[in-house]
Amino acid sequence: VQLQASGGGLVQAGGSLRLSCAASDTFFSSRPMGWYRQPPGKQRELVAGITVSENTNYADSVKGRFTISRDNARKMVYLQMNSLKPEDTAVYYCTILGSGYWGQGTQVTVSS
Fold first, then answer.
1. How do strand 56-58 and strand 45-50 relate by DSSP bridges?
2. Torsion over CA: 96, 100, 105, 110 (sign)
3. Taking the chain (112 residues) in consecutive chunks of 10 residues, what is each chunk's mean pLDDT?
């Protein structure tokens, strides 16, 4: 299984980015997926998760600003990030929740 995250970059506070994660996984549609992030000098934390039935959950810090979604036909999972804040700066990773499989991470930097 491989997970390839993309879409990170440098954006000003208040801006938006859309992260994408492409999965090479035959059973993608049966996997719960998630996005984690690791801010500089801090531990990795769960940002958002989406179940097989597309129920979603979010960290309190991103509720109302971030939206996770998935496209099973394309084996993709997305993270739409709006109203970005400097504290959202981190390396973002996609993962198959509970599996131990991680993508390589994509850097998101939000300037004030």
1. antiparallel
2. positive
3. 96 98 94 97 97 97 98 97 98 94 94 96
